[in-house]
UniProtKB/TrEMBL annotation:
Coiled coil: none
Pfam families: PAP2 (PF01569)
Key words, A-Z: Signal
Domain Phosphatidic acid phosphatase type 2/haloperoxidase, residue spans: 400-508
Molecular-function GO terms, alphabetical: peroxidase activity
Full protein name: PAP2 superfamily protein
Length: 517
């Protein structure tokens, strides 16, 4: 084959991949929830006493005492608020409706959009080689980041934890200072959001805006201008809606900035920067697995990316699991075992006789390129239920923090198993095997979607026990979808589900003891 033909093939492959991605984006981009502000099921006036994740105490972050509402300074702020509200434009009214009185959910949805946008495999160079995204050169090519599932869940975890800890600090000061909402001080102000009688200083919306913006800017550096724009719109909308004066916002921004700095300090030192090593390290991991078990996963891509996806993700700091060994699953079946032979027969039978229902399940849970990934899928499920059950901002942040912590720990545990066992995928062991889903660029055992889904379902079952059966059924469906898709063995899914449940138990234990129940 000539160099020109090779180049044309690479370009053609890239175009086909882009068309696939565009189709996936149309199908799987998050749909912004169309909800208005709502009455909260509770206000959790004692939430300032809950145990944070990163802060040792909510008063680690210090803000100034607010001016009394009777003071000249506050009255000046109140007049400024009324002036702003006297001539709202249509775009300002849309912003008020968009951000609602629980913006924790909006920022989560923004994160999901960015994950979907950046969940693209870096394309090959003209010579068939690959250049990895580099955080020190985010413009690339290729652009940074590649928001694959381990990266996505980590971004969601840090943002959600920053929101949660920041709101614990905000609630601590809200009920310490007990400054009334502007509409209670001046009845002529009719706010655009339902009043839930939560003190206004510091602004919880400002905490969420500042913390979310700062974390997402670090995770998606090319989106800094967009995130600044969204944060400014969010902050302004709180005055446009008549719920906060400027000093409420200023105090909330201080908390959000400080808690984001603490979260990002942890992120900078959690070993994620070492998760994608060079080819020599990747090859040594592969050789070690072969020495232990006599098998190894082979990447069957063309052209082949030189390194599997994040082989050292297992070295990233976990949140609540003490050691990887405590949650490492048993070894998968050997190459000559009857268990593997039976599974090969089962997968061939499924591939030859796949039903429309099985195909639909495989496609629904695929969460591949151009989507918000499996962890994002469970965040979307969580958002729908947070709205349905009227959770307030701090309850919502708590749910999302524990959800994403559990799934991040689950992902770290899963990647440990993947590269410790280095188990081949079905297409490597079954001649001429056809899959419904695209085969990922990392070993088979255990199934990432199964582990993420089981962990996510357990946390949501803890938060919403009335829906536990539904969540767990969905997790099992997500797990078996990978078998229907032909990219995993049944034991990948079954053991992965058990693994996710086990990992999530550590997070749930922390949640049970944080004072919020």
């Amino acid at each position: 084959m000539t160099c020109k033909m090779k180049k044309n093939n690479i370009i053609l492959s890239f175009i086909i991949a882009c068309l696939f991605i565009l189709q996936a984006c149309e199908e799987d981009l998050p749909t912004m929830a169309n909800y208005k502000d709502y009455s909260f099921a509770s206000v959790d006036s004692d939430a300032g006493s809950w145990t944070p994740v990163l802060l040792s105490s909510p008063d680690n972050i210090v803000i100034a005492d607010p001016q009394p509402t009777s003071s000249a300074a506050y009255q000046t702020e109140l007049e400024a608020l009324k002036q702003v509200r006297s001539s709202l434009s249509e775009s300002q009214k849309k912003a008020i409706a968009y951000w609602t009185n629980n913006p924790t959910l909006r920022w989560n949805e923004i994160a999901l959009e960015l994950i979907a946008k950046y969940n693209l495999i870096p394309g090959p160079n003209e010579d068939g080689s690959y250049t990895l995204p580099n955080p020190n050169n985010p413009d690339g090519p290729p652009p940074f980041p590649f928001a694959h599932p381990p990266y996505a869940v980590r971004a969601l975890a840090y943002m959600s934890v920053a929101q949660y800890d920041g709101l614990i600090a905000a609630w601590h000061y809200k009920y310490q200072f007990n400054r009334a909402e502007p509409s209670e001080v001046d009845p002529s102000i009719s706010p655009d959001y339902i009043s839930n009688n939560i003190p206004s200083y510091p602004s919880d919306g400002a905490v969420v805006a500042q913390a979310s913006k700062e974390v997402l800017k670090a995770m998606f550096p090319l989106e800094a201008d967009y995130l600044e724009e969204m944060a400014n719109q969010h902050l302004n909308s709180l005055m446009w809606a008549g719920v906060n004066v400027q000093s409420d916002l200023d105090a909330g921004k201080i908390i959000g900035q400080e808690v984001a700095s603490i979260a990002l300090s942890r992120a900078a030192n959690d070993n994620m920067s070492k998760a994608q090593p060079n080819k020599a390290v990747s090859d040594s991991i592969k050789a070690s697995a072969y020495d232990r078990f006599g098998w190894q996963w082979e990447n069957l891509e063309s052209p082949v990316r030189p390194v599997g996806l994040t082989p050292l993700y297992s070295q990233v700091d976990m949140w609540y699991v003490p050691t990887l060994e405590e949650v490492r699953p048993i070894a998968p079946p050997g190459m000559d075992s009857p268990e593997l032979a039976a599974d090969i027969k089962k997968l061939v039978d499924i591939a030859d006789n796949v039903t429309e229902e099985q195909r639909a399940i495989a496609n629904y849970w695929q969460d591949g390129l151009g989507t918000y990934t499996p962890p994002g899928h469970w965040n979307k499920i969580a958002i729908d239920h947070l709205i349905a059950y009227g959770q307030n901002p701090i309850r919502s942040a708590r749910t999302l923090a524990y959800l994403n912590i559990a799934m991040m720990d689950a992902g770290i545990s899963c990647w440990d198993a993947k590269y410790y066992y280095h188990y081949p995928r079905p297409i490597q062991l079954i001649p001429n095997f056809k899959t419904i889903a695209g085969t990922p660029n990392f070993p088979s055992y255990t199934s990432g979607h199964s582990v993420f889904s089981a962990a996510g379902a357990e946390v949501l079952s803890y938060v919403f026990p009335q829906d536990a059966q539904k969540f767990r059924e969905w997790a099992l469906e997500a797990a078996v979808s990978r078998v229907y898709g032909g990219i995993h063995w049944t034991f990948d899914a079954e053991v992965g589900t058990t693994q996710g449940i086990q990992v999530a138990s550590y997070t749930i234990q922390a949640a049970q003891n944080d004072g919020a129940n």
